[in-house]
Amino acid sequence: MVGASRVGRRELVGGAVAATVGTLAGCRRVRPGDVESSTAMAAVRHLAGVVGPRPGTTPAYFRAAEWVDAQLDRLGWQVERQRFAVPGGFSWVAPVDAGDSVNVIAHRGDLRPGAPWLAIGAHLDTVPRSPGAEDNASGIGVLLTVARAVTWRRTRLPVVLIAFGAEEPRGPTDDDHHYGSRAYVDRLTAGQRRSLRGMVSMDRVGVGDAVVIGSPEDGDPLRDQLVAAAERVGAPYVVESGQRSSDHWSFVRDGLPGVRLGSTPYAAYHDDSDVVSVVNRDQLERTARVVISWVR
């Protein structure tokens, strides 16, 4: 598994299912039309409407991680959890406790050592008091939509999906947030780093009417790939530079290719009003179609 360490986890895909997932050559290639936005909206309703606020070391966060794990398991993905320590601090409006968090990591059994691969991620946690419908149940919803679309379809390269823990800030600097993605990058082997062809972080992707495609610097080749993907599916998009405020930055700061989808400003940001009604189903679908266009 790319970048994961087992913590008493069983192999969740066995027997005929594992064999089918691992044998993708006979499947047709995934298409943007395979996207089902109802999957994304169901995730937003569950995470924001049922689980609610879920800072990365809390029992609510672990309930959310268990739920995401189960959704990926049902779709036939091989799922592992990666545990890491998180310090205490102050997260937006309230203190947060130190403790452990987890990344939920999934693949289809088609990874090969040294072979190129793609990563798609979204953070699962919220700041205190916020249900986090847009920030970031929207990203997790699109992650699960992509998982459903590609499970029994070929992609141009193997895909790894990651629901990151503890992305939200616990202090003012670059080193005070993105804990889950930093832990994930730190545990990649040299070979995995060399063979990673791109990481896309989906963070606040359910507001607005254009897909924001952001990178830290201008002239980013991976950002150009996502722009081309948006153009292929006819999705309106906005290109953004200087973008470091999501989990893609953990990859880029370590010399790996990463971009962010999302970041349209909205009034409910980090607020208790970030509820399900904030999220636009059409925007979730646009984002998912862009991601599918990129991986196909």
Please give the structural blueprint.
Blueprint: H1 15-22, H2 37-51, H3 59-74, E1 78-86, E2 89-91, E3 94-96, E4 99-107, E5 117-123, H4 133-150, E6 159-164, H5 179-186, H6 190-195, E7 196-202, E8 211-214, H7 221-233, E9 237-240, H8 248-252, E10 258-261, H9 281-295
Parallel strand pairs: 5-6, 5-7, 7-10, 8-9
Antiparallel strand pairs: 1-4, 2-3, 4-6, 8-10
Cα-based radius of gyration, to the nearest Å: 17 Å
The number of helical segments is 9
Mean pLDDT: 93
Question: Major sheet: order of its strands?
Answer: 1-4-6-5-7-10-8-9
Q: What shape does the CA trace take?
A: globular
What is the string of helix and strand elements?
HHHEEEEEHEHHEEHEHEH
Low-confidence stretches: 5-22
The largest sheet is: 8 strands, mixed
Strand content: 15-25%
Q: What is the number of E strands?
A: 10
Given the helix and strand composition, which structural class is it?
alpha/beta
Helix share bin: 25-40%
What separation lies between the terminal Cα atoms? Answer: 21 Å
